[in-house]
Backbone:
């Protein structure tokens, strides 16, 4: 009954509905379209200038590296320039004359990254693909060298995941960033979970009822989950169906992305719940400014906003990057790490919340 | 009458401040028990302890034999609380509010529906079941507040000022409802700032001050413990040449007369309860050819008793 009451309370509150559904959807549309002239989705990815040096003496590796360089150059994906001096090459990267510098070494590839985050990711993805295929080629070459003739070193065979040709737009960026924003705003809803009960004094009626406080706590928190799920599903559906937003390519990646969004939403919700139990008078005064500053610095409202050493330390930024890793590159490592961290936070916050609620005094 | 609530020697401190100091009393089954005290006397704290809203430092409280610390859930099942504040969900209708709170006491399905509807009918809101609290008047919200506390048919109902801010009609309805609840077998602990209400409906009354029990008993017991004097006041007009001393002597010799106060317009006589000297006083006044403009008999009431015991007005 408490769970149902929570769901009813959420959906009967017009402010909740506008904040959690209408607001992010409108923002995806407005930011994605109106600011598209200010932000660039993928223009720079096609102009990669990468310096390289082949230092390996292994003949198989040398042959494979050369074929790879030739293939990439033919495709026009990147401009690969052979460097003779390692120091000069690094300096060129530092001066933005090159986006990156790679050394094909013995059993290793060293990559020196430039300043552009998106380009860095592309370079890493490009050479990760090369590295994986190179290892496989070496194994085949070492065991059955004849088979090597059949290996296709065409760049498209291992850089498919990078979606160089995908028709991406700023709507894709804001699709992800708005869902993460929505998840973070969930902390405000969370803070109101008990805050509203305390304000209305209904918490006293709950406390005197013959139900354990731990059970009340869990039922109230669980009651928030359906709305969190519906919010994400609705925003994802609307953004795909009406704004042609691209998320991940495969169903599996989309499921991981959805899990990431859902757990983020739930983490923020439970953090909000705990804050609301400790700060009973207007917890929003603390939560809202922190959220907005954090989201602003993380580039939620414009991807051009990035302050090195600040933005990249923001949880929102890390979450966005994990989501973009899935949607753009099909990489899930970062998302899975964040999911594990979030599960830990949820468990910790639940324990703190239960202890706090069990010690809560009557609301007067 | 057996005791349903037994409060033994409870103490509650907030830091150095002792809100409830070794308080003991019991409430009999099926009685309306009034709880009075000036602001800050500790009555709300005591009610909060009984309803398990707050813990206490020392002592023992039992509801129908269940210790509220050891058998908390069992004790809670027997209780219904009507808080001073209107504690309702604004997003739920009147019926859904009552159903929600009654469901916390284990009612389900048809039983829950029936109990909720009966509670609303009991407080006179059966025609407002689909209405949300924000559209109700203050009096209706108060009545709904009561319905939410009684729908599960509790043995003990704790009512903390349930008539605050309501119109006369709603107040009368609420007071009648409390009497009916008592007649049905419920025990009610009742606090109010309206002394008249307490006098009107409570079978027994406890007065506390500074966290301690000052007096307990029926209204008559409380009043008689404090004073056995009532006053008889006649408004008149003494002529200038009137012999007031002779007049005073005649009244002073009447049985039961304790004090006489005279001024140009008023004769006030304090008489001990049990002596009927009023007729004789009037005879003396008429014999003296004094005009009688008004006659008032001031019987000591709970308010004067409370004032005497605590030294404070109730509010």
Residues:
């Amino acid at each position: 009954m408490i769970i149902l009451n929570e769901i009813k309370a959420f959906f009967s509150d017009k402010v909740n509905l506008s904040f959690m559904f209408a607001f992010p959807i409108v923002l995806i549309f407005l930011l994605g379209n109106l600011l598209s002239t200010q932000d660039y989705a993928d223009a720079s990815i096609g102009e990669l200038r990468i310096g390289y040096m082949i230092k390996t003496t292994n003949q198989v590796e040398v042959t494979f590296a050369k074929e790879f360089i030739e293939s990439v150059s033919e495709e026009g994906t990147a401009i690969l320039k052979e460097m003779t001096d390692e120091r000069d090459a690094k300096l060129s990267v530092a001066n933005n004359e090159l986006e990156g510098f790679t050394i094909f070494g013995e059993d290793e590839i060293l990559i020196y990254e430039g300043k552009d985050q998106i380009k860095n990711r592309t370079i890493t993805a490009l050479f990760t693909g090369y590295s994986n295929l190179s290892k496989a080629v070496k194994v085949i070459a070492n065991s059955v060298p004849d088979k090597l003739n059949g290996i296709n070193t065409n760049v498209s065979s291992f850089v498919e995941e990078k979606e160089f040709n995908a028709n991406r737009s700023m709507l894709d960026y804001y699709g992800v960033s708005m869902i993460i924003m929505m998840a973070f705003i969930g902390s405000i809803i969370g803070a109101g979970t008990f805050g509203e009960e305390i304000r209305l004094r209904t918490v006293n009626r709950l406390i005197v009822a013959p139900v354990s406080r731990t059970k009340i706590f869990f039922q109230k928190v669980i009651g928030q989950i359906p709305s969190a799920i519906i919010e994400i599903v609705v925003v994802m559906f609307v953004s795909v169906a009406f704004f042609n937003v691209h998320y991940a390519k495969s169903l599996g990646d989309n499921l991981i992305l959805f899990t990431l969004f859902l757990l983020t939403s739930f983490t923020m919700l439970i953090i909000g719940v705990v804050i609301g139990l400790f700060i009973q008078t207007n917890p929003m005064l603390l939560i809202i400014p922190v959220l907005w500053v954090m989201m602003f610095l993380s580039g939620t409202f414009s991807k051009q906003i990035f302050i090195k050493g600040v933005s990249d330390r923001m949880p929102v930024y890390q979450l966005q990057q994990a989501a973009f890793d899935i949607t753009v590159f099909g990489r899930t490592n970062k998302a899975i790490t964040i999911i594990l961290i979030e599960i830990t936070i949820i468990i910790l916050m639940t324990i703190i919340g239960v202890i706090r609620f069990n010690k809560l005094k009557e609301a007067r | 009458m057996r005791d349903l609530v037994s409060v033994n020697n409870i103490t509650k401190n907030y830091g150095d401040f002792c809100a409830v100091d070794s308080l003991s009393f019991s409430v009999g089954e099926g009685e309306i028990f009034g709880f009075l005290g000036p602001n800050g006397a500790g009555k709300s704290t005591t009610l909060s302890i009984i309803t398990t809203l707050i813990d206490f430092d020392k002592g023992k409280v039992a509801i129908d034999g269940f210790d509220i610390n050891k058998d908390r859930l069992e004790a809670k099942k027997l209780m219904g609380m009507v808080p001073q504040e209107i504690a309702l969900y604004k997003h739920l209708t009147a019926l859904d509010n009552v159903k929600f709170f009654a469901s916390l006491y284990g009612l389900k399905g048809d039983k829950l529906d029936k109990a909720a509807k009966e509670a609303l009918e009991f407080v006179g809101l059966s025609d407002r079941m689909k209405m949300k609290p924000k559209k109700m008047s203050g009096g209706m919200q108060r009545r709904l507040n009561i319905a939410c506390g009684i729908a599960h048919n509790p043995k003990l109902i704790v009512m903390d000022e349930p008539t605050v801010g309501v119109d006369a009609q709603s107040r009368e309805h609420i007071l009648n409802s409390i009497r009916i609840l008592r007649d049905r077998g419920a025990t009610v602990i009742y606090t109010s700032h309206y002394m008249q209400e307490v006098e009107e409906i409570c079978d027994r009354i406890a007065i506390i001050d500074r966290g301690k029990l000052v007096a307990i008993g029926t209204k008559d017991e409380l009043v008689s413990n404090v004073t056995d004097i009532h006053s008889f006041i006649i408004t008149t007009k003494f002529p200038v040449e009137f012999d007031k001393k002779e007049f005073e002597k005649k009244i002073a010799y009447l049985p039961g007369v304790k004090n006489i106060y005279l001024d140009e317009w008023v004769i006030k006589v304090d008489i001990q309860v049990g002596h009927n000297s009023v007729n004789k006083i009037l005879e003396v006044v008429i014999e003296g050819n004094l005009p009688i403009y008004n006659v008032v008999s001031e019987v000591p009431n709970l308010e004067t008793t409370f004032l005497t015991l605590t030294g404070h007005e109730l509010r």
Q: What stands out?
A: Chain B has two domains: 3-224, 229-299. Residues 185 and 226 of chain B are 31 Å apart (CA to CA). The first helix of chain B runs from residue 43 to 50. Chain B has a mean pLDDT of 89.
